[in-house]
Amino acid sequence: MTEGNLHRPLYVPDLLVNALNQTPKRPLLQLADGPTLTVGQVRDATSQFVQALRAQGVGQGSRVATLSSNRPEVLHVAHAVQIIGAIAVPMHPMAGLADHQHVIQDAQVDVLVFDAERFEGRASELAGQARGMKLIAFGASRCADDLCALAGGLSPAPLVAPRVDGSSVSSFRYSGGTTGKPKALATNHRTALAAASIMLAEWEWPNPPRVLSCAPLSHAGSAMVLPTLLKQGTILIQPSFDPVAVMEAIQAHRINCMLMVPTMIYALLDHPRFDAFDLSSLETVFYGASSISPARLKEAIERIGPVFFQFYGQAEAPMTISVLRKAEHDVNDLGRLASCGRPVPWVRVALLNSEQQPVSDGEPGEICVQGPLVMDGYRDNPELNAEVFVGGWLHTGDVAVRDPDGFLRIVDRTKDMIVSGGFNIYPREIEDILGEHPGVSQVAVIGVPHGKWGEAVKALVVPRVSERPAVEELVAMVTERKGSFQAPKVVEFIDAMPMTPVGKPDKKALRRTHGQSAD
Questions:
Q1: Average pLDDT over residues 288-300
Q2: What is the pTM of this model?
């Protein structure tokens, strides 16, 4: 017996290798308009990519970024990075050049793997700003070796998981906040294992899951892969999110499981061809990453079915701090639909005030978390770490109230709170009210300068095509429920809501373009 192995935990690389070595003939990855790969074929491709990356100099601790549209090779690289013991640096394909440059430079990426067909120009730009970074391509490229061709010429070998411990870094991730540059945090194997374990134990998966994956696999979309593999499921990969393509795939392949952000759900509901498709195979729609309009969630449940499951987490405590289960979605209670559920039993959660004391039910407090899911800290940022871990808790920046049954309702981010005439106003509460109007598709509320009140409430509204609401109606809705001091002083209609790459309304962009004084 090897010394030290008797009680050593199995981390994500161990789980991955063990699962890929079982049921080799079982279908796993299905490509839109393409072949289906079995578990054994994915295992063999992973082995080939492990060897190819090692031949290109990737070793334990190397920092490997991937920039690509959805394709199975993205997963082969992700699996290979885990098995080599390298460090993954996720890159969102929809992010701008400045954000990509920031991630590449801040993480000191050693190797960038990119989709030659779509991202060759971007990869060349990034390489020009990052001396010493190696480029490797999916497909033929003028500036890099073809990783697919290199891997295809190698013979599969047995997969062997690396020896890692809980504090070893598995990935550099960047917070998806809407203020300032993304903040780097190092996710270790302890946190990655906790995130996967909670997803497996607490999420309501169909048996077996038939998953449609249209979120970026080089970013958050890959989180669904290991649980699906362990639950004997299959994954249908689509290049990107398109409402019609998604609904066609659900109908044609009898998809029973998806992960979507709220804007994707809105896009399905608002599409003129929505009623033309049979979506009855759906058993679970996991949704999260940003707040959802309770009125639109009620609409989704009534039109699609009681299949919605919410998860709440953040990069600093990934995926699952709390959940709102399918049966807990009460369409007759918009307050319940505004909830992010109850904390999972794998973490300690408290709502704390500014003096770091617990608040009573019904009183707003910041969601604070302890447990193995919590990150070690932001990389090379001791001042920010001292702030975010004050009192020995992870301070999420989300303000919530708890009802007597333990359900949390996030009222807003601490940094988004509006102070008007000495009153604290939480934009999320105003957004939820305005979202109940049948003529509102999406809404975001920001604070703008005001000479008398300091700040005033401004609502940016994307109207539905069929019905544009009257400004007076929207103001009256908030006045009746929250009082005139919280009612929007300005309502502006916009054609589309600017979004961050992870699917949140981009309030930084809204403040930049619509943040003029309300005097």
A1: 88
A2: 0.83
